[in-house]
UniProtKB/TrEMBL annotation, chains A, B:
It is an enzyme of class 1 (oxidoreductase). It catalyses: (R)-malate + NAD(+) = pyruvate + CO2 + NADH. Its cofactor is Mg(2+); Mn(2+). PANTHER family: D-MALATE DEHYDROGENASE [DECARBOXYLATING]. The keyword Glycoprotein does not apply. Keywords: Lyase, Manganese, Metal-binding, NAD, Oxidoreductase. This is D-malate dehydrogenase (decarboxylating). Pfam families: Iso_dh. It comes from the Bacteria. Residues 5-346 form the Isopropylmalate dehydrogenase-like domain. Its EC number is 1.1.1.83. The keyword Oxidoreductase applies. InterPro entries: ICDH/IPMDH, IsoCit/isopropylmalate_DH_CS, IsoPropMal-DH-like_dom, TTC_DH.
């Protein structure tokens, strides 16, 4: 019997709703598998916590968090706490602290989904840099409130950080039998960061002579996403570009509530973190209508990361079954089911 | 008789092909209108020029360029000259030098176009900041070629620059009977630039109490573009975000070859510049198959800017006629016509 220790952060808004259901799915997986079990350590870190304690997590938060096999997160952010505080004190530092420099986001059409695109053929992966770049948080704010007020936001790209994500993407493509890779750039305007990114890309691709790869400016690439979704296989992008492209990719599946996000520390020195791609959606929080699919998909990714490939596949199969039937699905994808009813349907299949 | 003096920069690749046809349309407009005429001053500034002279334009280029009523540009960039040189020495400095701080990009479904989206209802305008922000071109490059090599790219947002574009967008919405405005942000991650942007947005919107407006993170907004294109009216965004969102918007019309871009100096102290949104497309340059619609639409915007509203409308009407008939359209939008044949069809209607 293998027991996995999970740190669970439901966070804010619908994060709480979907994580509750995620735990039910995990419990059922443990039940049916026989060979594995989960031990949860639930952490109340959230905007509510912030309003009480003046910070998003305790001072020893990272140490607590580190001690586990994986982290499962719902969503962070709620009105009353500025986003740049809630996110910059919880989600973003975890990604950096645990060197989760790969953010893996699959865009795969599942049965029963209704894409806003006419061409519904898509099955690709976005690999987003997750530890530096535009998200480094450095900058300056001058002459507050004056006529000549100005701010600077810095992006920092290191050779180490850029090379490892590009290499990871090429390796991923190779291992998964994909022979086409696109690197998002904007070197025609961003004359330092993206010229550098392209240069490292040109270096790394030398090591993959069998891979067809190309760079594409992020503006053109966003257009390419919706014009030719079926041609995409592996897309690699900086932190900000990856953020934008993956939300676009998620919307291409017909709902932002479906897609998962794996924040991976490839060296496995630190825990990786899995979350649905959607936010805390304060407007529908607690109403019991949030789509839990993004969380289930994230859990499937987590199980795969924990080398439980069979259980990971079981979840995907159950999800596909429920989606195909189309009876027990939530509003955002055209149904009437509640978050709990959709989960019930998944459990019934499992 | 009013004569407009136009500085024309065909530039590179298909820029040359489409500007040639653009001039034919302008000539016909002059012919049929009776009241106006155009005097062209064609400038050979391009990558070819660069390879001969080591720069994209002569030292007194800006002075030459300034002396006109408007600038018409094809496209810039060609293999052999790095993009960050060609663009940073021609297109981008013109935008800044002539204080063309508004980049206006309509996304409007025309008859006969085939959107990749199921929902083909769209008629909105993106107003992009065009003079600063992520495009300021400042940064640092350290430890070249070493293991600890790193680059910084700075974004600079001034109060003046941010306030004027937001105000322009609100004013534009008000004047054009639109009551909904979305401001693209990413303040949950970009803790200086976008927090500042949001703050100015919150200030400016106070002056427009009748306007429904909201900010939306650019990642979510990209998804919103394809999920709810019919709900968009006016979108205002920073230089980089506007760049990405407008290419996405252009692709939503079914071809990147259709959309125009107006680089506007609202004070009319300097000339404004009009261009198709597409690039120089080296792969199809000189083949005579480029879609000239983006240029015609840009010319229509230019005429409107020059207070020739009637002539501007004539061009749009002729374009819609040819698109609706669908006979004389280029490959990218499902036809077989050459660039010249498509123009011939437009001229026949005019
Ligand atoms: C909440 C926000 C800071 C975050 C990001 O931009 O990374 C989110 O959009 C995501 O993609 O996980
Ligand atoms: C060519 C490039 C520098 C330019 C930009 O990014 O502004 C283009 O994409 C545009 O949108 O006009």
């Amino acid at each position: 019997m293998k027991t996995f220790r999970l740190n669970v952060i439901p966070g804010d808004g619908i994060g709480v709703d979907v994580i509750r259901e995620g735990r039910r799915v995990l419990d059922r997986i443990a039940e049916v598998s026989g060979g594995i079990s989960f031990q949860y350590h639930e952490l109340p870190w959230s905007c509510e916590y912030y309003l009480k304690h003046g910070k998003m997590m305790p001072a020893d938060g990272m140490a607590i968090l580190r001690d586990c096999d994986a982290i499962l997160l719902g969503a962070v952010g709620f009105p009353g706490v500025p986003d740049h505080i809630s996110l910059r004190q919880l989600l973003l530092p975890i990604r950096v602290e645990f060197d989760q420099y790969v953010n893996m986001r699959p865009v795969k059409m599942l049965p029963g989904l209704n894409s806003p695109l006419k061409n519904e053929t898509m099955d690709f992966v976005c690999i987003r840099e997750n530890s530096e770049g535009e998200y480094c948080g450095k900058g300056e704010w001058k002459n507050h409130g004056q006529a000549d007020e100005m701010v600077m936001q810095h992006s920092i790209f290191t050779r180490k950080g850029t090379e490892r994500i590009l290499r990871y993407a090429f390796e991923y493509a190779k291992k998964n039998g994909k022979n086409h890779l696109l690197s998002a750039t904007k070197s025609n305007a961003l004359n330092y960061s993206m010229v550098f990114w392209d240069q490292i890309y040109d270096e790394v691709r030398q090591d993959y002579p069998d891979m067809t790869s190309a760079k594409m400016h992020v503006d053109a690439l966003a257009g390419y996403f919706i014009m030719h979704p079926d041609r995409l296989q592996v897309v690699v992008a900086s932190n900000l570009f990856g953020d934008i492209l993956t939300d676009l990719g998620s919307a291409m599946l017909g709902s932002i509530g479906i897609s998962p996000s794996g924040n991976i520390n490839p060296a496995r020195k630190y825990p990786s973190m899995f979350e649905p791609i959607h936010g805390s959606a304060p407007d529908i929080a607690g109403k019991g209508i949030a789509n839990p699919m993004g969380t289930f998909w994230a859990i499937s990714m987590m199980l795969e990361h924990l080398d439980c490939k069979e259980e990971a596949d079981q979840i995907m199969t159950a999800m596909q079954h429920v989606l195909r039937e189309g009876k027990a699905v939530t509003q955002d994808i055209g149904g009437k089911a509640s978050t709990t009813e959709m989960t019930d349907a998944i459990l019934a299949v499992l």
